[in-house]
Design goal:
A: 361 residues; 2 domains; two-stranded antiparallel ribbon; B: 333 residues; alpha/beta; Rossmann fold; 12 helices; elongated
Amino acid sequence: MKERIKKVFKSSLGQLAIPLIAIALLIIFNLIRDPGFFVIGLTQNNDGNLVLQGNLISIINGASELAVLAMGMTLVTAACGGQDISVGAAAAIAGSVLVKVLKSGSGITGGRVLAAFLMACLVAMIFGSFNGTLVAIFKIQPMIATLILYTCGRSIAYWINGGATPTVSSPVITAIGSFIPGIPVPTPVLIVIAMTILFKLLFRFTSLELFTQSVGINGSAARLNGINTTFIKLLSFIILGVCVAVAGSIGVSRLGLINHETLLLDIEMDAILAVAIGGNSLGGGRFKLSGSIIGAYVIQMLTITLYAMKVSSTDVKAYKAIVIVILVVIGSPVFKEKFGKTVNRIRNNRNGLMEKGAEKA
Amino acid sequence: MKKLPKFLGVVMSAVLVLSVCACGGSGSAASSGGDSSAAKSDGPIKVGVVNNPPSESGYREANVKDMESVFSSANGYELKTAYSLKNDEQLQAAQGFITEGVDYLLISAAETTGWDEVLKKAKEAGIKVYLFDRMIDVDESLYEAAVVSDMAKEGETAVKWLLDQNLPEYNVIHIQGAMGSDAQIGRTGALDEQFASGKMNKVVQQTATWDEAEAKKIVESVINSGDSFNVIYAENDGMAKGAVAALDEAGITHGVDGDVVVMGFDCNKWALRELLAGKWNYDGQCSPFQAKIISDLIKSGSAPSSKKIINEEKGFDAKALTQADIDTYGLGE
């Protein structure tokens, strides 16, 4: 029984140990620094709604785009053993399409927002399948394949609207990017929850999770077992495309403004980091979606902590880098192995000493 | 579905542009160096413009349009353009223009440093260099003239306006642009002096690297920390919008009759409309129209009396702003 519990603990929690420890450390650090960091309050916003407010809300709200992208990125990483670095640029394209459709007629209704979102999804999926085709069919390294869209994506986003920073203002957009009247939880958080449930349902009712893992672990073995590896890889990029559209739409809705150059800038790096911090192998294979989601919150919590500490603007990235280096090194297989060996040696030594002691007695 | 053909059009044009670029690259490699002197005597004046991409901001969009309309073939120019936010890509583009043999090189640099080598090469090749919008950290002899907005003056005007408001105290949230850019340095300087002299109190000073969403997070973190503030000084309109979104969510009033003074820069039309509605207080104008001045200098052929030519700037107070101002000075749509 004990062995079994240990096994379960090792297999499921083992991977999540790093992100969970990271969150715990950040919480302890903030508790020591300033317990007020965790205060959550209800305030009336300028639209007259009661809304939740506080650093924790800022963290889970602010990490929404990252969390959604990290989910898709996990799938691509697992299936292809590489990462998509074009998600930020693709999100700018999706966001531009969203704004284009929103501005294509007078008056922004719920129906138009839905149409705009579906259009953004479609376009993002097309770009996703472009990346996917390069990776799955032409067998190009994912990072190289997606480098193309990474380079030209924001230019394409610019072509869509022509002008810089077009704005859209509507109560519907405010409801999506900020708060729905009567609901005190930020809408982006609800969207992340919805996306998580969607993924869980997808894994529950299809063999996608199993197939993805087998393709990632050993592609040829998977193919011999009748799995269409090309399709699975392509599919992972198309699903990431949906995530990109969702993240881009959240980003645009937050302020009712699209700036192609800055929308979700550098988020691809954070998304890949979230996957890595989540304990997923960047070489593909087994994965845990929850790890990546927690990873996203770790990154956001780190940023908000640094903001709360009023770390000087020029230093933020350096501090962030230090923490992330430590996390990634601790999570690396080499470190785990060395650490495990050391623990074993200490344990053996102690056992040896005890046996010796017993002999003497 | 109606949108699909249009999208295909975009993809097709992308392919077209890429292939044209490829051809242009190989073509120029073959003909480099030879015919640049011949072109100078007759034919259009070749102008290479290295600029930030028009998508950077409403300012840049107006700036790029201004360049394209003034340096048109109708005015006797042959215009080549390269747009990038990254300094190294800009440097490469400038190198390319020098190799291709332009007559004039116009530069708005992403960063103030790293331009020595390229400008020296341009001088050796007999290419006259004009800087516009942004200064570069090089010796004055390396360029003909710099037509710039005095960003420092822009910051000073804004800070002077702020002091004229006679607030009982100044607790300022200062949201900076990309660190090291000329706009950031100029807009930060005057405010830093106030912080140093103690007339204004720095609640927080953070860079959002022109990112609206990041600006919102910075203001959120101040609100969450419970520190009091009554001024938001954002170094462009987008970041001011992000900051205001955080205020709105926290139920803090802002603008002409509000608790917090909101200041932005660039004078986008949508931002000026916020001013007109009384939701913001101040917007600094940074004139994007330098092409005419440079064109006049090129055509006159004479060196300007001073290397640094200051483009005229404006600042708008929400209380004095009119719709006519928005139509005249507003950028974008």
